Amino acid sequence: MAAKEKLKRDTDENGKLKEDRFLILHNDDYHTFDYVIDALIDVCGHEINQATQCTMLVHYKGQCDVKKGSFTYLSPMRKALVDRELKATID
Fold it and tell me: 1 pLDDT band (50/70/90 cuts)?
């Protein structure tokens, strides 16, 4: 991705940086609770309680926003979760 395009994704129409993106973890009905909790601790730096709460929300609601920040900040985390075969998006 070109640097100009990346900057465009992280700025609003006035050129200000957007910090309102969310890393969303989606339910896949495949991985165990422990696996997802460990992934959130390792990738997102969550404490055990926060990772557990997010995992429960993903299970019962289908998704949960697990981190907030710019696209550039969240992108490596999304990739790390996807590399662990979890479904994650940035919205």
Answer: very low
How many domains, the chain?
1
Residue 69 vs residues 4, 21, 34, 61, 66: alpha-carbon distances, Å: 19, 5, 25, 22, 10
Tokens of 21: 């993106």
Q: Please tell me the distance from the alpha carbon of residue 61 to that of residue 30, in angstroms, as a whole number.
A: 15
Boundaries of domain holding 69: 20-90
CATH number at residue 31: 3.30.1390.10
Per-residue model confidence as pLDDT tens digits over 24-79: 999 998 999 999 999 999 999 999 999 999 999 999 999 999 999 999 999 999 99
